[in-house]
Amino acid sequence: MQALRGVIAPNLTPFNDDLTIAEGLYLDHAEWLLAEGCVGLAPFGTTGEALSLGIEERMATLEAMIDRGIDPGRLIPGTGLTALPDTLRLTRHAVDQGCAGAMILPPFYYKGVPDDGLYDYFAWLIDAVDRPGLRVYLYHIPQVAGVGIPPAVAARLHKEFPETVVGIKDSSGDWENTKHLLAIEDFIVYPAQETTLVEGHRLGAAGCISATANLNPAAIARLIETIEAGAPDPQLNEEVAAFRKLLAGAGPIPAQKTLLARWTGDARWARVRPPLAPLAAAQAARLADEVAALPGYRRPAA
Amino acid sequence: MQALRGVIAPNLTPFNDDLTIAEGLYLDHAEWLLAEGCVGLAPFGTTGEALSLGIEERMATLEAMIDRGIDPGRLIPGTGLTALPDTLRLTRHAVDQGCAGAMILPPFYYKGVPDDGLYDYFAWLIDAVDRPGLRVYLYHIPQVAGVGIPPAVAARLHKEFPETVVGIKDSSGDWENTKHLLAIEDFIVYPAQETTLVEGHRLGAAGCISATANLNPAAIARLIETIEAGAPDPQLNEEVAAFRKLLAGAGPIPAQKTLLARWTGDARWARVRPPLAPLAAAQAARLADEVAALPGYRRPAA
Q1: How far is A205 from chain B (nearest CA, A)?
Q2: Do the Cβ atoms of A275 and B120 come within 8 Å?
Q3: pLDDT for B91-121, tens place per residue?
Q4: Any chain A CB within 8 A of the CB of B44?
Q5: 3-class secondary-structure state, position A38
Q6: How many CB pairs under 8 A join A and B?
Q7: Spatial distance between the Cα atoms of A21 and A14, rounded to a whole number of angstroms
Q8: Which of A248, A202, A210 is nearest to A227 (CA)?
C-alpha cells in the first residue's frame, strides 16, 4: 500500500457569523497548507470540528475541495460517526470522490464495548461500503472519543482486510501504544504529533497527522526532509516541538483559530461551533505574545 | 407545562438478520408497552440503541409508529447527535410529527467543554428549530455520553426558555444530582430508575423513564398507582427493585433483549448492532433462570 509520507494537516474549519462553514476561506487554507509542504490533508478530524459539522455539510465541503482542484489522492477525510448507516454514507461518499482513504473513528457513544463489537462494526462497514477503492485508516483518539481501538483490534482488522484496513492515526499521545502499532507488518501508522518524528521515522512511521500543522506546516515539512535525508536538524526539531507544546497547553482548537484570526485579520477564523467556546480576548493576546517570542518561529504569511 | 406522569419506556429496537430494524416487531412492542400501562414512550434513547441507528432510520421509524396509530402526544423521541445540523434535523422532524417532546443529549464528542458552550448549543438549536411546539427534555447520562448537563446549565436553559426547555431525564443514577434538578421550579424531572419512585413522588418527580420498563411495565405502573393513591405497596416496590437490580448487573441492553427473545420465541429480539455484542448463550440462560426465580415476578405475555 502506497502511503502519503510526510506531514498531513487535519485542516481547521472557519465559520461565518451565522456559524455556517466559511467555504472560500476553508478552501484557501487547504490550498495554502498543501503549498506550504503538507503532503496531504485530513479534513473532518477532531481539529476540524468534524463532530460539530452535519453530514450534508461534510459531503458538500469535500466536493468543494475537489471542485477547487485539490487532488482527492491527497485527502483522507474523517467519516466516522456513531451509527453504521451514517458512517456508511460518509465513507462511501469519500470513496466515490476518489479520496486516498477514509479516517474512521470507532463508534464512540456506547462505552466499554467488547473488542468483538468494535471488530464487527468495521467488518460490517467494509462489507456495506462494497467498493474496491476503500482504504480505511482507523482513528484512535480515546481521550476525546471515550472509545479507543486497541492494537489487537487494529491488527485483526488489518490481517482480515489487508488491502482495505491499511493504517491508523494514533492520537493517543501514548508512545507505547504507537510502538505496538508500528510493529504490525505493512501497517501505515501516523502519530498525531511532530515531536516524535525522528524515532517514528526509525520505526517506520509514515510521517504525522498533526493539528499544529495548520499553523506550522513549512517547518514540520522541512524537518521531515532533514530526517529523511538522514540528518535531522536538531534546532528545527526543538523549534517545532516548542511551538507544539505552547499550543497544546492552550485548548488546541480555539487557540489555533485565534492565532489564524490575528495573523490573517479575518474574524471568521476565531469562531468555533458550540459546544466549543472561543478563547477569551486576554488569553488570545497572551498566546499571540508567547508565540511571537518563540525562538525561530516565523509567523506564516497566510 | 403538562407532563406525561407515570412510567415511560425507552423502547428497545429489534433487528432482522441483516441488522435492519425489524419494524413490525418494533411497533408491536411499542403498542404492548402502552397497553401494559406505560404513559408514554421515549424511542431512540440509549436503551433503544439510538446512537447505532441512522438519521433516516430514526425518522422513518418514528413516522411508522404514528402511522400505526400511536398518539405522538405520548412520544418523547431522542434527537440528540453530536452536530447541531444533524440534531436540528431530527428535532424539527419530531416537532413536526406532533411529538410531546424531544429528548436531547448534549453534544457528546468533545469532552470537558465549558458550560457556556453547552448552553450556546441548546440556545442555537432552539432558535434554529423555530417551532412554537418544541418541548425539550434534556438528557443527562454522563457515564455513557461522556458529557453531562450540569444542573446549573439546565436551570439556566429553563429560565431563559421556560416554555421550551421544560424538563430533563436524569440517567446519572446520582440521586443528589436528581434532587438538585427537582429543586428547579416548574421543571419536569424523570429519574431513570423505578427504585426511587416513592421519594421521587414526594419531591415532585413526574414518574420515571426506565430501561427496565421494557420488560416490567405493568408492575411499575401498578406501583406508581399505589404511590399516587398515597399508599405505596412495599412488596411491589421490593419486587420491582429486585428485577431492576438483576438486569442492571447484566449489561442492560443485551440482557433485556435476550430475555425478550426467550419469552417471545423471536430471535430478532436477541440481536444488537455493533459495537454492542449479544449475551453469550450460557450467560443468557443463567439470567433467564435468575429472573424466573425472582419472588413475585411474572413473565409478561408479550
Answers
A1: 27
A2: yes
A3: 999 999 999 999 999 999 999 999 999 999 9
A4: no
A5: coil
A6: 128
A7: 6
A8: A202
B147 and A275 within 8 Å at the Cβ level: the answer is yes
| The predicted structure's pLDDT at residue A179 | 98
Please judge whether B57 and A85 are an interchain contact, meaning their C-beta atoms are less than 8 angstroms apart. Answer: yes
- Write b or e for each residue in B107-127: b if 16 or more Cβ atoms lie within 10 A of its Cβ, otherwise e: bbbbeebeebbbbbbbbbbbe
The pLDDT tens digits of the residues spanning A86-105 come to 999 999 999 999 999 999 99
**Is the separation of the CB atoms in B174 and B150 below 8 Å?**
no
- Distance between B251 CA and the closest CA of chain A, angstroms: 10
Distance CA B20, CA B212 (A): 24
The sheet that has B188-191: what strands, in order across it?
Answer: B102-104, B136-140, B165-170, B188-191
Q: What CA–CA distance (Å, rounded) separates A8 from A217?
A: 9
Q: Is the complex ipTM more than 0.90?
A: yes
pTM: 0.97
Say what the pLDDT of residue A1 is.
62
Low-confidence ranges of chain A (pLDDT < 70): 1, 250, 298-302
Residue given cell 477569551 in the structure block: A280
C-alpha span between B302 and B260 (Å, rounded): 8
Residue A124 touches partner B, C-beta closer than 8 Å = yes
Interface membership of A120 toward B (CB under 8 Å): yes
Q: Kindly report the nearest CA distance between residue B2 and chain A, in angstroms.
A: 30
Residue with cell string 413490525: B24
CA distance B213 to A105: 33
Beta carbons within 8 Å of B297's beta carbon, 6+ residues apart: B216, B219, B239, B242, B243, B291
From the CA of B202, how many Å to the nearest CA of chain A? 33
Residue A35: CB atoms within 10 A of its CB come to 10
- Tens digit of pLDDT for each residue in B29-45? 999 999 999 999 999 99
Cell output for A67: 471542485
Q: Do B83 and A51 touch (CB under 8 A)?
A: yes
Residue B73 touches partner A, C-beta closer than 8 Å: no
Give the three-state DSSP class for A31. helix
- Please report which residue ranges of chain B form alpha helices under DSSP H: 23-35, 55-67, 84-96, 115-129, 142-145, 151-160, 175-182, 197-203, 217-228, 234-248, 252-264, 281-292
**Hey, is A21 helix, strand or coil?**
strand
B106/A275 CB distance under 8 A: yes
Judged by a CB distance cut-off of 8 A, whether residue A114 touches chain B is yes
Instruction: Flag whether residue B52 sits within 8 Å of chain A, measured between CB atoms.
Output: yes
DSSP secondary structure of B102-157: EEEPPP-SS-S--HHHHHHHHHHHHHHH--TT--EEEEE-HHHHS----HHHHHHH
A interface test, pick of B21, B49, B79, B86 with most A CB neighbours within 10 Å: B86
Omega before residue B275 within 30° of 0, cis: yes
